[in-house]
Amino acid sequence: MERRDHRFVVHVWFETGGRSDGQWRGAVEHVGHDRRLYFSSLGDLTDFINARIGEPVVPVPEAGRTDMKSGRLTE
Question: Where are the alpha helices (DSSP H) in 1-75?
Answer without folding.
Answer: 42-53
